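User: Some background: our group keeps a shared notebook of sequences we're curious about, and every so often someone picks one and asks for a predicted structure to add to the entry. Today it's my turn. The entry only has the sequence so far, pasted here. Could you supply the structure so I can complete it?
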Amino acid sequence: MLRTADVVLAAQAEPNAMTFGLLGPVGLIAIVLGVLGMTAGVLRQRRKARAEAVVAVEQDAPATETPVYSRAGE
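Assistant: Of course. Here's the predicted structure to add to the notebook entry:
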């Protein structure tokens, strides 16, 4: 009976100190790169939308020849 217990214990996988799973160095680098990529994508979309809005406003604004002054009375 004692021998059977030894065989069963030997057959079970021993936890390895080198096994990190998702929290290992490669997993952490992958997570950081993913977050940076998503942030860059969001910033790119916002910049693109802002540029399209500026173009739309410039096309809608009438062209005037009236000078614009910063101080009243000039």
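Suggested note for the entry: The radius of gyration is 32 Å. The chain has a mean pLDDT of 75.
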